[in-house]
Design a protein that fits this description.
CATH topology of the largest domain in chain A: Rossmann fold
Shape of chain A: globular
Number of domains of chain A: 3
Largest interface: A-B, 143 and 142 residues
Distance between the termini of chain A: 80 Å
Strand content of chain A: 5-15%
CATH architecture of the largest domain in chain A: 3-Layer(aba) Sandwich
CATH superfamily of the largest domain in chain A: Glucose-6-phosphate isomerase like protein, domain 1
CATH class of the largest domain in chain A: Alpha Beta
Oligomer: homodimer
Radius of gyration of chain A: 25 Å
Chain lengths: 518, 518
């Protein structure tokens, strides 16, 4: 029978509660899905044992080992270094992070992380959820290839003399990260500073970035058996967190405890299996309902963005593992409560019935405040009571309108608790992906956009050359010359004209592009 | 015939382009919807003329007058002050904002805005999209009733001696804002500072807040004919922006020009009518596809959150205007490109076909950089070219998978352009709401959550009293005594126990709550 409430201890007095009483699950759901659930848990065990889970790329999927290195396969296929190599790599990386942070103690006031996707969202979540004004360093992020955005970050983080740069890229070839790194390096040069003395690389052995960073302050590893969206408990998350002063050991420990709790074969005792069941029931195993993530805690504002990647990139797949076209997925959005009540909860309650909510409740309102302000806003009522009341009120109002929700309750928010929450969602994704038979560990759809972008950049070079050689005309004219889609030609040349590289006359789709004369 | 591309001039060299070539609209869609579209444009004209558009609350809806005060009804029903009163109010408010900012020149280094929903999202968008390191003041926001979050904002904005507080609340009764204001006032008191000498109220005449703020630095108006989610071109948006050093006049002017362009009766020339048609076609007039907002510009990161409120709170309605149950809505989410390509675009391309994308393209990569960094990352290719290439590449990859998108292109990002974009979405919402026959100007679903929350807070008081009187037991026991839902009792008492107000023994739903002794 599916329980409607489950508490899991993570040690250190931390209990995570999963409350399904507003989810309306059929009590025999676990029996009806007993077969697929059993398979899902077996597959998760096989994954943890070193099976090739990412078949496309022939890779193992080992992010769970990051919290329990002793579980890593002792002599995995293709592993260099022999038995125990993976365990040793993980423990060495922990030690290297620790030593590096000690070595840098007292140096650098601010950290600039250059990374995108899994190399930014996890570190950003940790920094925002666990940061305090008294932290060792403030951490900034450059996570795009927008020149204006890069300029803004560089100004915020200035002066560069006090800045430590952490470039995170498995291959070193992700263009946004590479561009960010090149622009930052140039800014150091312009400031008369030696970039290598301010830079750390987090990258895979043998990558382009690894080669380039041999003289930097440090190089730390990424491994092919950790995917970007599950890398937050690897060096990717641990290093920026440690530089900020966040307790990475506690993060790992919380995740490890949750991993253990979610290995339980009895579904009724396994919060990840239960949550996967709830997702399955809500969206009929097809993701028909979006997951609206509503943490009632300002610090968890980035949780939904983090989960958006973890869940949507893992589950949003065209084909299932049998090769059938399924167009799976599970949409995730949300910001925070009670703020969002004043934004889109109107639609959640009255409008389209196409979502279920995931409330996150943090019981402790906060430690007694050093500012000595009082949070008692009425006799016997604090602003935290309001926050708690709004969660309950919104959940009930949604339930009254027939909208389902589940609630995760944690006692407070620290590194251990956040580690536990992250692991819970990671393992729910693993189990749910098995239930609906998709490969959670690849992202074939991302390549198409990259290829198309590379074609557009190639087209730009050809067009700029054509025009430099004296050709001119409308996008249609030039598309014929360049043997390209007129829409792409228009896109490229309008952008080039706006940035002073070609001349333009007229308006609309028929504007005429030509060489800048004189 | 529906054009697939339209350019609108906003003056000052600004052209906004709406590109529907990736939207796949049927060419005769405007003819098939000619009747509803004509009605929608008539209704918008009637609204601008002072019709009671918010019938539930007997209110006019006048946010478009904020950009053209001369259009406000000259002798509106119920208007105090006679003919021209609304026009005068708007012009007086502009003047008052200007004078106030002059009066405060050189005083206060930072601004703390206390507000939620429409009283925060608009100002936040302006501040982030248009802010620069050299601005007159930095603006911070307190937009929730989370004690921990409040503490964090207070620490970030410290020292309070240099802080100007702007409390924005129409009624003064919104609990999150009221709690924020009380906590901030207490912090000023604790710091030995006179709050009234640091505070400005933006509120409706006769409100609780209006009464309390008579001795503050200033009081500026909110009007009942401007709804929260469309208040960004009122004092709500203009005052924080002006204090930061943002050109509010340009914002208004950009919105005014877009308002004019979107009054055109010829649908083919009217970008709001065209965008409403596109929304209608994408989601079959039922919002079957979510709108994923992807601005390729870091500064527009908050646009999707802003539009989430504008669109979902306006369109997410249970009943249409004929009283039929329709459960309408249009879900909005998104962050920014190309960053999101490394997060959930995998699902957009390969997964569920349940969205259409709205790309926002900013042509100018940025002014030449004062930091003297170079954005040329390869010979002849800048990081901005990559950004532009990624937009085109992702759009094409989505199109290849049969996913629709529309693109808004602006030449650069300044106050005028942002005003134009905001007005375009506001007017699209007005027209689309008419097309699907819902009232875009009320939010009845929000009340249910507020009522339920108030009940929970009342229950908390009763329970704390019961327990202080010596009662104890499980949530079930105490629910029987308090005649309440055991789930609510459990929720309230677990929170009270975590914050040291009642004692607790045991775990799970059967834990026992009692008085703290000694």
């Amino acid at each position: 029978m599916v329980p409607d409430y489950l508490e899991v201890s993570l040690g250190r007095g931390v209990t995570v509660a999963l409350d399904l009483r507003w989810m309306g699950l059929e009590p025999d759901l676990d029996e009806r899905l007993a077969g697929p659930l059993g398979r899902a848990l077996s597959e998760l065990a096989a994954l943890e044992g070193g099976a090739i889970a990412n078949a496309d790329e022939g890779r193992m999927v080992g992010h769970y080992w990051l919290r329990a290195p002793e579980l890593a396969p002792r002599a995995a296929e293709g592993e260099q270094g022999g038995a125990g190599a993976i365990e040793r790599q993980i423990r060495d990386a922990w030690r290297d992070v620790e030593r590096l942070v000690l070595r840098l103690a007292g140096r650098f006031e601010r950290v600039l992380v250059v990374g995108i996707g899994g190399s930014a969202l996890g570190p950003q979540l940790l920094s925002d959820a666990l940061g305090h004004p008294g932290d060792a360093r403030r951490v900034f992020f450059m996570d795009n290839t927008d020149p204006d955005g890069m300029t803004r970050v560089l100004r915020e983080v200035a002066p560069l003399s006090e800045v430590l740069v952490v470039v995170i890229s498995k291959s070193g070839g992700t263009p946004e990260t590479r561009n960010g790194y090149l622009v930052v390096r140039e800014a150091f040069k312009a400031a008369g500073l030696a970039f290598a003395e301010h830079a750390i690389a987090v990258t895979q052995e043998g990558s382009v970035l690894s080669g380039e960073s041999s003289k930097w302050l440090a190089r730390l590893p990424m491994w092919d058996w950790v995917g970007g969206r599950t890398s937050v408990t690897s060096v990717v998350g641990l290093l920026p967190a440690a530089l900020q002063g966040i307790d990475g050991e506690a993060l790992i420990e919380g995740a490890r405890r949750m991993d253990e709790a979610t290995r339980r074969p009895d579904v009724a005792e396994n919060p990840a299996a239960l949550m996967a069941l709830a997702w399955h029931a809500a969206g009929h195993g097809r993701g028909d309902k979006a997951m609206v993530v509503l943490p009632y805690k300002d610090r968890l504002m980035l949780l939904s963005r983090y989960l958006q990647q973890l869940v949507m990139e893992s589950l949003g797949k065209a084909f299932d593992r049998a090769g059938t076209l399924v167009n799976q997925g599970l949409t995730v959005y949300g910001n925070k409560g009670s703020t969002d009540q004043h934004a889109y909860v109107q639609q959640l309650r009255d409008g389209r019935d196409d979502f279920f909510a995931t409330f996150v409740e943090v019981l402790e309102d906060g430690p007694p405040d050093a500012l000595a302000t009082s949070f008692a806003v009425e006799p016997g009522v604090t602003s935290g009571d309001y926050l708690s009341g709004f969660l309950a009120g919104t959940r009930q109002a949604l339930a009254d309108a027939g909208r389902r929700s589940l609630t995760l309750t944690v006692p407070w928010l620290d590194a251990s608790v956040l580690g536990g929450l992250i692991a819970l969602f990671e393992r729910t994704v693993s189990i749910y992906a098995s239930l609906v038979n998709v490969n959670a560990y690849h992202q074939p759809g991302v390549e198409a956009g990259k290829r198309a972008a590379a074609e557009v950049l190639g087209l730009q070079k050809r067009l700029v050359e054509l025009i430099a050689d004296g050709e001119s005309g409308t996008a249609d004219d030039l598309a014929a010359l360049a043997d390209a889609d007129p829409r792409d030609v228009f896109h490229v040349l309008r952008h080039a004209a706006a940035n002073g590289r070609v001349a333009v006359e007229g308006e609309g789709l028929d504007r005429v592009f030509s060489r800048i004369e004189g």
